[in-house]
Amino acid sequence: MGIILGYIATLGVYFCIYNIFAFGLNIQFGYTGILDFTVITFMAMGGYMAGVAALGPEQPGSGIYYVLGLSLPWPVALVMGAAAAGALGYVVGLIALRRLRSDYLAIVTLAAGSIVLGIVGNANGLFDGFEGLVGVPQPMNGVLNLTPNAYTVFFLGLCAVIMAICWLVANRIYRSPLGRTMRAIREDLDVAEAYGKHTFRVRMTAMVTGCIFVGIGGVLTIWFITALAPAGWGTSETFVVWAALIVGGRGNNLGAVVGSFLVAVLFNEATRVLPAIPAFPSLISEIRNMCIGGLVILTLWFRPQGVVGERKARFFEVPLRTASHEQVPVPAVVASGR
Amino acid sequence: MHQPAAVESGSVDEILAVHELRRSFGGVRALTGCSFGVERGSITALIGPNGAGKTTLVNVVAGAGRPQSGQVIFDGCDVTGRPSHEVALGGLIRTFQISREYPAMTVLENLMVSPQRQAGEKLSTVLFHPGRFRSEERRHLERAVEVLAEFGLYEKRNDYAKNLSGGQKRLLELARAVMADPKMLVLDEPMAGINPALIERLADHIIRLRDTRGTTFLMVEHNLDVVERMCDRVVVMAVGQTLATGTMAELRGNAAVVSAYLTGGVVDVRAQG
Ligand SMILES: Nc1ncnc2c1ncn2[C@@H]1O[C@H](COP(=O)(O)OP(=O)(O)OP(=O)(O)O)[C@@H](O)[C@H]1O
Ligand SMILES: [Mg+2]
Asked: From A219, A243, B82, B111, which residue has the greatest number of CB atoms within 10 Å?
């Protein structure tokens, strides 16, 4: 019983985390049209920073090396992780957003992701290189004294609360004039610029906000599995987040939720329980990626807007002051120019 | 250098003045020292053969392209080389030769983007003080509905802009520009590809906007009947320069203009320039 509950809670945790990733990518890509092909790098940044903030000082003989080691409480670690991901997003944005458009920008984000992976992997003193951080303390695990399965359920609750906050923030942005301007930039950057929108600043806002979301997801990830190494955040993980958003429906946070459920939970996690074939140890994960790839292709083929596409904006119906629609007299706001 | 035929001196109030603008793309010299002024509150036409550099000029004026040399003065400020959004915030809005609506947004949303310096465009306001832009939003919405009604697009307000007809997109382009409350509108061929009845309506809209709001217009236009009917002054461009300025009647008597534009003899102009 406890095991089943723990398993379901585990899936629930991944569902929440992928939702947060997908919201972040949605703000970047779905709202603003920024092709961020290195989503997972920001997840790693958030996770690592929260890890080194929460871990105690590096032990000399342990063979594990990392910076900071501040033994900070988990809420502070969460904020630091989110901020670090946002800061990295800002740096990548400075390089990618000032001059570049869609496809070139995508290549720059890919390159930036590779550079970060190379640095983190090789600079052992940063986050313990390719070995990665281990033994990251879990929030309140020390004080609660729960069984592992019960703790997973507790952790699911924490994730759900954080996800709900992210959901509210993402939707509030979408519905605001800021969200509208982001979508206008997605539709036509030059036109938005010609209408007085500081498109660089708005795109940067979207980039950094999205990275903060993804970073928060990264913090939850490292808390949940208590470890993080470069092998866990390769390009294929970015692909899973993209697949979730494309399949679910970009521009709609409900789509992000549906996509996370279909791709990240149903396909990604559920296939992990398939029996492993000893002769082909990596077969299951290959099958999983093939299934997700197929799902993306089918979606783009038959339902390009995603399962739940972007919804039409509805405004409060303002009554027209005059009955006739053509040639309503215009109030003389400005005096005649003649 | 070739001097434009009639450059007015300080006596008239010019909202826009360009001086000796030069812009080339690699070997192609699109602007070769273009100078003219636009009187405040006028409807000025910019005409010239295809490839004369009209769109390039609009781009340079609106900050979408930097001139290699020369000056753009708008409303008393030197805006040469400023980014487009700054020029737009200064009160100069341009439209594009090919309609460029925001396709996957509704007609009403297309208008709602336009108002400048919206309080709700700041992230901190959106997150922590959402009440601060609610009344502003309501005001913009009322105005947008009004403008849509003026332009006969009210019934289409909840349609995606990409589903409008070509002519309706032209109307939307102008309606959207009006929402930005500009001092000056620079229109790049606003009447291209629309039927005569709609041309009449667009012309009426432009004249009405000038008369009621005092908006200044500079419009690139190939249809000389339209130009004659609605424009106060005409600037003629050929091979990147101002060939002449004046009223349509004056220009009909100008041999260079007639050969350059009215009969399409570009070669003669090049020889002269
Ligand atoms: N981005 C560019 N790169 C290279 N050449 C360009 C570019 N933009 C314009 N040109 C060239 O500059 C010249 C002027 O072009 P422009 O578009 O300004 O003409 P136009 O007067 O608007 O013509 P039309 O009436 O056909 O719209 C043309 O020879 C064109 O080929
Ligand atoms: Mg042109």
From this structure: A219
